[in-house]
Amino acid sequence: MARSSQATGQMGVGGAAVSIRNLSKRYNNYNAVVATTIDIESGDFFAIIGPSGSGKSTLLGMIAGYIDPTAGQIVINGRDIVPEPIYRRNIGMVFQNYALFPHLTVAQNVGYPLKIRGVSSAEIAKRVGESLAMVRLDAFASRMPSELSGGQQQRVALARASIYKPSILLMDEPLGALDKNLRDEMQEEIKRFQQEMGVTVVYVTHDQQEAAFLADRIAIMRDGAMTQIGSPRQLYEQPNSRFVAEFLGEASIFPVKSASSKGDGQLQLIVLEDGTQVAIRSELDAGPGSFACIRPERATIGPKARSLRNAYTGTVRESLYTPGSIRYRVDLSGTGCSLKVRVLPQAAIDFLETGSLVDIGWSDDDMTILTE
Ligand code: ADP
Hints:
Elements: E1 18-27, E2 30-40, E3 45-49, H1 56-64, E4 71-76, E5 79-80, E6 91-95, H2 106-115, H3 121-134, H4 150-162, E7 168-172, H5 180-197, E8 200-204, H6 208-214, E9 217-222, E10 225-230, H7 232-237, H8 242-247, E11 252-259, E12 267-272, E13 277-281, E14 291-294, E15 300-301, E16 310-322, E17 325-332, E18 338-343, E19 357-362, E20 367-370
Helix pairs in contact: 2-3, 2-4, 3-4
Bound molecules: adenosine-5'-diphosphate.
Adenosine-5'-diphosphate is lined by residues 27, 30, 32, 50, 52-58.
């Protein structure tokens, strides 16, 4: 969902809608991006995730203007910008490596885009002050980039990319060089910043957690194409393929041998490849070639499992206590199925050691069908 109510923040001019139509990039005989179509709403925080080499940076480069598409259009506010040079596109860009000018102060770095646009010194000073306040670096205006931490340098890059009030901000792995704690802090910062600016953000990351935290919508790329686009919740709860289910979060996935009926929301009795029977309620057909998928938190362990539609006994093969969750791998008795299970470490829950025999189950709407 677009944040249209926040589309003009205190500093911002609001975001622009971006419509990418049949966009392709071919290098010699390699298709880096293949006929990709995406509609990004004004003020949306749109993340692109996918494995290394799937075409994320190439796509971003084509929007920014430093990579020429082989075919297709990028329509912003009703106009195809592909023929336009970078400086006419009104798009801000933040990279992983900050790309600050080392010989300029923080204030000079942030003011640089205005300077090359011929803005007066008085106006530059005023807007640099506002921009640095937005990223909470007012007190650092006269420092050199080398005197800042990684997170602070990235905030300078953010202030610089947004000082000329672009309607679109592109970010390519902006937190990739930071350590975990700083990354979490910067995620909050970027989210707040985007909401206050009302700017449309297209954000490339390989980190699915980061994408899920930041984005209104996520597109998952594979081999130069979009495999699925949706909210973090849609992608997690209704993945359309094995690839998406495994890329975003953890899942136990089993090949289907046959199913009793079509998936029209009714109960389907499904036989898995190893002969195990499961009951699933889904709109999708669980034909041969499809998969049954269950997320680790959807399985129930303990006596309550006995009353669920899919009820088994099993043996705990692995157990691991991690902060905030307990993870098990449970082999279902008399089957070839092994399930990843995650439970909250509540007071009433025992920690099960490896080798424990347990009841394990899930209801018919805890499993989803993956058609490929
Ligand atoms: P990602 O950002 O998802 O890691 P990229 O967009 O950087 O992927 O690259 C997509 C594919 O295009 C990769 O296989 C990469 O090797 C190829 N590629 C990228 N840039 C070039 C180039 N200038 N010449 C040839 N192949 C390229």
